[in-house]
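Worked Example 4.2. Consider the chain below.
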Amino acid sequence: MLAKGGFETGALSPWTQASGSASSVSAAGARTGSYALTTAASGSGANQALTGLTPSTTYLLTGWAKVATAGETLAIGVRSFGGTETFTNIAIS
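Applying the procedure from the previous section yields the following structure tokens:
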């Protein structure tokens, strides 16, 4: 249901900048395809507003992520949907 979830256009849109330092889409760090989202310092990221979801329906959000330095964390999740913000932290040690 995400639009351009693979960032293959090379542009951030239709994603929007979250709070914190600027995020960008670049060839660096791409897992598959040609582009990937790159975030900066803590608190940075990107959001995408979804519409057309059905109440009382379970949705599955998956993604691939990596951190640059041991001890850093990255969160993938959902918020502002009428329920409690839900996320998973990704980290390496």
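The two ends are 32 Å apart (CA to CA). The CA atoms of residues 21 and 72 lie 16 Å apart. Compare this with Example 4.1 before moving on.
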